[in-house]
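Notes from the 1:1 (GR / supervisor)

We went over the backlog. Supervisor wanted to see one worked example end to end before approving the batch request, so GR pasted a single chain during the call. The sequence is below; no edits were made to it. Supervisor asked that the structure be written out right there so they could see what the output format looks like.
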Amino acid sequence: MKRILASLLMVALPCAASAQSPSAVRVDASPVLASYPAEGVVEAVHSATLAAQTQGRILEMTVDAGDRVKRGDLVIRIDAAAATQAVAGAEAQVEQARASAINARAQFERTQGLFEQKFVSQAALDQAEAGLRAAEAALRAAEAGRGQATVARGFASLAAPMDGIVARRDAQPGEMAQPGRALLTIYDPTEMRVVADLPQSRLEALRRGPLSARVEFPDSGRWVEAGHVELIPTADPRTHTVQARVGLPPEYAGVLPGTFARVHFATGEQSRIGVPPAAIVRRGEITGVYVQQAEGSFVLRQVRLGEALSDGRIEVLAGLAPAESVATDAVKAGIALKRGVAR
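Structure output shown during the call:
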């Protein structure tokens, strides 16, 4: 009976070992879409900063960062007492100028009648006409001043210029608003893009074909095809870089401005060696893969990795040669190695 059990155990062990042996995939250099990675940040295509255009104390701010607003919503109210007084003063100047203009016209008409009767000289008529023109010009200037004062009073109430989300609030009720001071920033979340800086040395390679790119969000592991790629036709004289604007599709409208992203700009096809992400072992600062030997066993070998390829594999820069095979699942290969199935 013991000999029968021993025989069954010897048969079962190879079967179990075979069931636990990790699968392998042949590594070959294959043509993939090569790319150049550049780090960037997400920003809104449309954003607006509301700034004070009049002086006064901030009475009310109806929204805070993160709030949604509609175009035309009242978001900031500034004390308009000084502006109201300026309008009243402008109204008084208009009335004074109008009275002066009426008097100047009457004087001109009297002088004109006397001139026709030969009671005054041509010089007196010219002087009366000049006085009328000056009075009428003063009236127009006063009316323009009243219009400016009225517009300035309107600056005391600030409305949202677009539908969007409040990105930041740079003031609080009770503070003093000065002309030019930023108070509120609003952005439209429906159109977002990634902005990245490219060195001038990379422009020639990018311009050989149609501009295309893929955007990677490392924090979440998400990838997305860029909607469009635009290169700004000017370079920064200090950094010698050119800004690239990469549009995001509508389904990524929820990405927050300022989010870190990595843009992979397509530079053409190249032959590269790559392995599946599941085949990679990371132990501290060591990165490796399980390489299959001629007899079928696996050994852990350190490799140097590159960027993610367009087909989902991870590029291997050093440590592997074409025609070698690696375990497709590093976890299973490691477990099998510890159990003695692979060594």
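Supervisor's comment: The first strand starts at residue 24 and ends at 26.
Batch request approved.
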